[in-house]
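To whoever picks this up:

The parser on our side crashed when reading a file containing two proteins. I've narrowed it down to the boundary between the first structure block and the second sequence. Both blocks are reproduced below exactly, byte for byte. First block:
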Amino acid sequence: MNHPTPVLEVRDLRVQVGERTVLQSVSLDVAPGSLTVLMGANGSGKSTLGLALAGHPRYHVQGGQALLDGKDLLSLAAHERARAGLFVSFQAPPDVPGVKNNLFIRTALNAQRAARDEPPLDAFDFLSGAKQAASDLGLPAAMLARPVNEGFSGGERKRNELLQLSMLRPKVALLDEIDSGMDVDGVRAVVALVERMRAEGTAFVVISHYLTMIELLAPDAVLRLQDGRIAEAGGMELARTIAEHGFAPQPVEA
């Protein structure tokens, strides 16, 4: 049986934050169009994985390798990783005062287009697509003209992350608790967008403990992170077991 070449390959990644080594050794392969759910107790290293891959300066890679479409991700600056096709959402998206949402997204999109030797989108062409994408996600078009996330509710901030995702169309997207603060319609919007983008080839790594959304996403794999390592791999049954029993080790039947 032929397996597709992974778009993201992580090997023995070790990451230090401050004085603590948070990721001890993490390895995983992510195929184009696939969806992996990452679960783990607080402090197990889930967000650290995403932020280290994104190039956050507080997250120091001590060893290991990460390849995005065959390119050495760890040798690139943070903005170069984004241009190469990596998208990492914030668990708590920050405000960006004074920067309009539409300008922020269009600037990021045109930077990616330039990296692919594609012509930039002018404001008119960008806005027509952005308004439709916002409508699909339940965001009023008026929010495109407001400063990034300023005055947005928690759910609106997460939908705004999804708007950026839908416009940037990355090769790999790591979504960190994207369901947090979302209502039922918001979760449906997440699932619909992920399904559409997976069909177009985007691979997803989703950090979540919300079983209903995980079941709707129908992941290819579920990984449990513990003490900075992948302690267990499985499918939906693993997610259901964690949702029912938590992260404490389960007794082995005699």
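<<boundary where parser fails>>
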Amino acid sequence: MTRRVFRYVPFTVEQDRTAEPEYEARCVSGDDTECGAESGTHRDPGPVEEWQRRHTQETGHRRYRRDFGDYAVMRPPAGLAELARVTGDTV
């Protein structure tokens, strides 16, 4: 079997729908040092936003660093992926 290596493949980047995204926030309010309070990690933004509202009400802090994380999958073009599957080549 001959193995071929493709030098350029126009992959697309897609969100991996099998993995849950993650949302979180950290309070960065403060003059000399940041508050540092954290929301914890959640699977949707609602609980993080509610934590921010409560933290602002309790402390008066109004500046937050928000982070969103997800997983990505690289997908080759459909025809190329099918060709590789049939021939046993790697893409």
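After patching the parser it read the second block fine. The mean pLDDT is 87. The chain has one domain: 12-87.
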